[in-house]
Write a structure and sequence with these properties.
- By secondary structure, the protein is of the alpha/beta class.
- The chain contains 7 helices and 7 strands, in the order E-H-E-H-E-H-E-H-E-H-E-H-E-H.
- It has a 7-stranded parallel β-sheet with strand order 3-2-1-4-5-6-7, sandwiched between helices.
- Strand 6, helix 6 and strand 7 form a beta-alpha-beta unit.
Amino acid sequence: MPRLADQVAIITGAGRNIGEATAKLFAAEGAAVAVIDMDRSRAEKVTAAIRDAGGRAKSFICDVSQEDQIVNMVKAVAGEWGRLDILINNVAISDNKDLFEITKEEWDRVIAVCLTAPMLFSKYAAKEMIAGGRGGKIVNVSSTSGHYGRPRAIAYTAAKAGVINLTRSLAIQLAPHNIRVNCVVPNKIGSPVGKDEFNPNRKVVNLRNRPGEPIDLARAMLFLVSDDSDFVAGTELFVDGGCAALMPGGD
């Protein structure tokens, strides 16, 4: 039996890379998937691929920096399938700038997308999960950049560090409602944040001696939203090929 049979999942940033792989995997495991992206063509392409493979999916276009759009989108998903069981807070953007280059507007945008949006999605998704009476699962996507400083990003590193402690607090506050919250910590998986192109020659330093692929993180998140991880809550799962065991930081 599929591990996510009859469940409904929201996946943000699902139009490419990690989000796309996760949407396709969850659908293959029986979930109805809300493919969330700002880019309609990307979202619809992923949705079509899932449907062509016999899965259930629908595209939802959402600017995750806008609270009203998050509220409306979560309600629309729950209304479409009558329930909500899973939330994957995957969407992210990066500044790739140092302290003296970044503007306040750029800082605010990165924080809004990478940190505030996961909080708001969790808030409104949790309300639907509680109303449904079945509990739920939330997985936030952080980064090794949330543990180590970088020379070419400052808002992104701050936001991803915040995601880690946001996960812990959400896990504590939502546990009484049977909602498990966890976090994954990838490093250089697939294409760089905000880009479509995957460079197989991109420099990586890890124990697996290969670049991470989107399916690597998708499988880890499948574990965290399945019954296999029922006793796992409020934790970080490093999916970095062992990078963090080797060295601090890195560009």
